[in-house]
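One such given next:

>
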Amino acid sequence: MRRILAASLLVLFCVSFAAAKPKRLQIYFIDVEGGQSTLIVGPSGESLLIDAGWPGEANADKIIAVTKIAGIHKIDYLWSTHYHPDHAGGIPALAARIPIGEFVNHGANVEVDDDDTKQIHAAYEKVLEGKKHETLKPGDSLPFKDVKVQVLTSAGQHIPNPLPGAGAANSLCEAEPKPELGNGENPQSLGALITYGKFRFLDIGDLEKQGELALACPNNLIGTVDLYLATHHGSAWSNPKAIVWALHPRVAIINNGLHKGNDPAAWQIVHDSPGLEGLWQLHFAEAGGKAHNVEEKFLANLDESTTHYLKATAQPDGTFTIFNSRNKLEQTYKAH
């Protein structure tokens, strides 16, 4: 009888401990050679993959390896920011390897004169045949469990009104040079704000300055964020001070490659953002040299011979941890 009672108490303790343990949001920043592939796994295990990197099996291998680490066997949503090869090229190879519940995108390809983009989009359209898919507009959201996934930008448009708590006048706009009008697929980027409790993560794909400033000027429509994925791999065509500094990110991640992204000027803007507590990169960037790369411990990959990832694990109170799979470094950023 005592053994049965003791066993019952042990089971009750374990159940109570598990219930008390806070659920967490996981975000994996996957090394796809300077492209984008970001895997988001909600507390309930539901998954969202933003982009799938370059064409070919090599990048599909990298993504599949991370899905295994994350413990998922299906991608519930595959979110395509736009149809450039470094973002959408890997979708056919990946779709042949893992079930995908629904595909979401910004709509039709606008780079009808670019052969590479036309081929990538045609291959993507072929994957969509007979599959569930949807075109999203600013203001839409995904029915994602426990996590709010809001569409901020799509097809060259943006949310017309400030998000709750946002809308303050942005004094940084006055000094911002007027950007050149962008065209092609980058300004079409399907951009998202992902919220879990008090934690906020921003990923607006390869949106260029004109689109970014429309979100920030003359008023900041987004507010502040905890984690910011530097736009367009840290490109000089993106990341103007008026949006980066207005967002006041606590931590920023740059998904650059050895020879792609992480422009020194953009890196400096992100690095100098007021209140920034941490800056991490998927790769050392040769063009940046020592002055425009983070310390080695915050780099996931030092050259092109490895495929390490960065991982953010967030709690609903706004506390989150960044993990570097190369050196097992973990750094926690406490909720404010």
